[in-house]
Write a structure and sequence with these properties.
Largest sheet: 5 strands, mixed
Shape: globular
Number of domains: 1
Order of helices and strands: EHEEHHEHEHH
């Protein structure tokens, strides 16, 4: 996977912000749009408007390379991220690091360096780590990216979910 920067808000006017921004999102969602495009069968709608930016130029499950890319992103775009943080309607800014679950590990720990935490905190950006199920031997990180429509927090389209993913999602939701 790779890491993503995302901005969310119920009343966030994502289009107005992006018209004047140098940030280049890979995904834009508007509040009220269906989660599954072109489908009335699934009535779930997005509760917030948001945009997502892929950080870094390559897909990698390795946290250390994602941390380097996030650090560089925050330094290069610090003024734009600060402007975004002050935008009306914005509820949350986040950098999400995607890592692969290791089913053989008894415990998995992930450390984020203090300088990255400080950069993010100064900009008003939270940090999160998303742990994805182990990919099959033939599935690469960019395949997971395509399967989730380029957004790590987007619900996968039900028709594309494997049985294992469906069961995992069902257990996670309770």
């Amino acid at each position: 996977m790779t890491c993503y920067f995302a901005a969310h808000g119920k009343t966030f006017d994502v289009d107005a912000f992006l018209r004047r921004s140098t940030l280049d999102p890979v995904d834009v969602v508007h509040r009220g749009e269906p989660v599954v495009p072109d489908s009335e069968r699934f009535a779930k709608r997005y509760p917030r408007s948001s945009f997502t930016i892929r950080i870094g130029s390559r897909y990698s499950w390795k946290l250390d390379s994602q941390v380097r890319a996030a650090r560089l992103f925050l330094r290069q775009h610090s003024s734009e991220v600060r402007r975004l943080a002050g935008t009306n309607g914005l509820e949350r800014l986040c950098i999400d690091f995607g890592v692969e679950n290791d089913p053989k590990a008894f415990c998995q720990s992930f450390r984020l360096p203090i300088d990255l935490i400080a950069l993010a905190a100064t900009a008003g950006v939270s940090l999160e780590i998303s742990v994805y199920p182990e990919s099959s031997g033939s599935e690469r990180a960019d395949d997971v990216h395509k399967r989730t429509n380029g957004h790590p927090n987007k619900q996968m389209q039900p028709a594309r979910m494997t049985r294992r993913e469906h069961d995992h999602t069902k257990r996670a939701r309770g």
